[in-house]
Amino acid sequence: MAEFTAVGDAIHNDFFVVTGSSFADDLQLLFETAVGTVTVAPNVVRPQLAFVAQLPASVPTGRHWLRLRHGGTTTERIPVEVTAGPPYTVCVLYSGRPKPSPYTIVFVANPAIESQAGDTFNADPVLTNRAGYHSAVAYCLQNILRETEDLLRAGGTDAQMRFVSVFDATLAAQQENALAHEVSPNIMETPFNRLGVLASFLTRFHEVADVVFVLHGSTTHTRASAWFTRDDNSRPTVPFTYDGVARQHGRFSSIPGSCAIPVTEDTTAMTALHEFGHAASDFNNGRVVDLYVNGTAGGFMANKKFRAQATDPVPANFATYNGTNYNSDPNRDALGYPATWTSYHPQPIDATRPNLMDNFFLSFDTPLRCRLDQLTYAWMRDRLLAKLGR
Amino acid sequence: MEPLHPDLRAALKAAHPGLTDAQIDQHEELLAQQFLLDPETQEAETRALDRRREQLIQQYMPNFQQVAQMFHQRRAADGESLRSP
Lengths: 390, 85
What we know:
The complex is a heterodimer of chains A (about 400) and B (about 80).
Chain A: E1 4-7, E2 10-11, E3 16-20, E4 28-33, E5 36-40, E6 44-46, E7 49-52, E8 62-70, E9 73-74, E10 78-83, E11 90-94, E12 104-109, E13 112-114, E14 121-123, H1 130-145, E15 162-166, E16 178-183, E17 187-189, H2 196-203, E18 211-216, E19 225-227, E20 230-231, E21 237-242, E22 245-250, E23 253-255, E24 257-262, H3 271-279, E25 305-306, E26 317-321, E27 324-329, E28 343-346, H4 374-388
Parallel strand pairs in A: 2-10, 12-15, 12-18, 13-16, 18-24
Antiparallel strand pairs in A: 1-3, 3-7, 4-5, 4-8, 6-7, 8-9, 8-10, 11-15, 13-14, 16-17, 19-24, 20-23, 21-22, 25-28, 26-27, 27-28
Chain B: H1 6-15, H2 21-34, H3 43-60, H4 64-83
Helix pairs in contact in B: 1-4, 2-3
């Protein structure tokens, strides 16, 4: 008996995903016909899924037998019908735990770009670059699920999450389809001042997201950014205390977290997970903020505090979260706090590399090994578990 | 927001003689501050920060976008090649 399932149809140049259990990293897909076998290496493998960004046209159309080879074994086969297309508009990459409201991450090919002034809307070039979009989805999945930081995958929690892609090349360049907004000089953000547009956009595709990755094709505004989630605390929450103050992790959101990432993103950077860190935090009950600037106090930040004077020592204890004390980072990893800064951070998991929310480009080896600090990791894990548990 | 790559910082300084780290840092601070404001209730503050940033850019790094664009294209290409077998 085969130990896996093909998700959806097998279509040339579209996503192709198989699901199962105990998949090993060396997994390969073997498409067999009477005349031969075509081997396809997935872009991303997790124990429960193997993700191919674009099914290559080297797999002939027609009926195949599909086997998986991994961990020194080859599975039984299942029938698969390969077609030439067209690719789907909405593709459920992984359905997550079967339940009414699974934690959902949606990737969207941005249909229209809003100018900085908000007075013009231009077609996003990504709609004519389906291959680039698929590669960007693969990059994001690799980045959030497979690099050293295991925030989403620890304990197999990613197996409970739903992943969806939306690519609709028919949408017009108008305000209701503009999910990306230019900010001078080179930043792209998800729609300023009308974040509700994301939820209404996805409703058209019958999706509800917790976090939306808006993937765009701008060549001028390529610096990624994110906006925090807004939890819906009128619905069930999970209480927590932070420095003795009672707060809540919302199980549901009223506005999803969102980030805008170019399809040409440098794949050696930790940008996708860094932006997810912002987007998955909450505007009111804990923002996870950038650590590469000093910043200013105001509102509740889960991962940054301020001293009265830059000359004051960094306090040993950063915060008490749910009764556990978390230390401060006296040295800002190996980077050091600039002499004028008053801000300080929680103790990192890996003190030899920059915090994932700091300037990961300054890592001595590769940004891909950067991790969060201990407090933010614990806080964000609890936050994810609160939403996964709804 | 994505951090500023140290090589982009160097490229900005190379393209704008006299530009200092402090001026770049000031721009970064304003930008980060902007992304902490509530976009639904603090639009005026956001616009004010936008104007201050724009002044900094025009005064000290008018070619920021072009420099960043070239840098991004090169990094994206390098990243692809690093990922390829």
